Amino acid sequence: MHPAKERKVVITGTGRAGTTFLVRLLTELGLDTGFDRKNWRASYDEHCHAGLEHAVDAAGSPYIVKNPEFCRTLPVLLAAGEAPAIDHVLIPVRDLQAAARSRIRIGGADGEIPGGLWLTSDPERQAAALAVVFFELLHALVVHDVPHTLLPFPRFVMDAEFTYSKLKFLLGPITLTEFKTAFARVSEPGLIHVYAADDSLDRSVAQAYRARQAEALRKAERRRELRRRFGIAAGLLATVGFGGFLMFGGR
């Protein structure tokens, strides 16, 4: 007989939608997130206000786990009958273009930088990549009847009463007053970036990204050429010796 799987509440989604805030809030309330008020900063990425993640299936992982990658792997695991025992999935939801722009601002290649481009290395394809993985996640949850809650961003990081109503099933005896106190401690509305309706910022960022990529390719090509020349020189040195090499070079 196989041992029973540990049950989990999973926080996942496209990212850049308040998932880290949610972990901080539940930590502040004393729930089992694997963090506490003192140690959470050690797993927090200041540059992009992200982090606080755990592998869902890791030994000793907490009951409540934030794992963006689970958005991609859960549909496969459910289809194969290999998914962990899930009590609930919490999915913060942000406007698709805003979520993509937030990742474009952070930059990097696919998964290279926390909070940056994900599932693609092309800024212009980020929104489409997020749309696909988000649909596949929701489709899998619905088909396999997995309990889940959608949390609209930025409302759920600004409206304590609304968020309390959405999370009450998870909070046990925690009162609304206690919830509001914890919410006020971790809420930072100033971190929310409101993007303009036009996409000029995205175009400029995408252009800058492509320019950086082109420069990186040029540098890589120069390094390859230097290695090639060094290889030729080393071969000559090995063949004719140092004196012969100098004579060859002086011709």
Can you summarize this structure?
By secondary structure, this protein is of the alpha/beta class.
Structural topology:
Elements: E1 7-11, H1 19-28, E2 44-45, E3 50-51, E4 64-66, H2 70-80, E5 85-93, H3 96-106, H4 126-143, E6 148-152, H5 160-171, H6 176-186, H7 200-250
- Strand percentage: 5-15%
Helical content class: 40-55%
Would you count the extended β strands for me?
A: 6
**Major sheet: order of its strands?**
4-1-5-6
Q: What is the distance, rounded to the nearest whole angstrom, between the alpha carbons of the first and last residues?
A: 80 Å
* Name of the CATH architecture of the largest domain: 3-Layer(aba) Sandwich
Shape designation: elongated
Kindly identify the CATH topology of the largest domain: Rossmann fold
**What can be said about the biggest beta sheet?**
4 strands, parallel
> What count of structural domains?
2
Task: Specify the structural class.
Answer: alpha/beta
Q: If helices are DSSP runs of H or I spanning 4 or more residues, what is the number of helices? A: 7
Q: What's the order of the H and E elements?
A: EHEEEHEHHEHHH
Mean pLDDT: 80
CATH first level of the largest domain: which class? Alpha Beta
Structure notes:
- The protein has helices spanning 19-28, 70-80, 96-106, 126-143, 160-171, 176-186, 200-250; strands at 7-11, 44-45, 50-51, 64-66, 85-93, 148-152.
- The model has no long low-confidence stretch (mean pLDDT 80).
- A four-stranded parallel β-sheet has the order 4-1-5-6, covered by helices on one side. It has a two-stranded antiparallel sheet with strand order 2-3.
- The termini are far apart.
- The protein contains seven helices and six strands.
- The protein has two domains: 7-197, Rossmann fold (3-Layer(aba) Sandwich); 199-236.
- By secondary structure, it is α/β, with parallel strands linked by helices.
- 49% of the residues lie in helices and 10% in strands.
- Helix 1 (19-28) crosses helix 6.
- The chain is elongated and about 85 Å long.
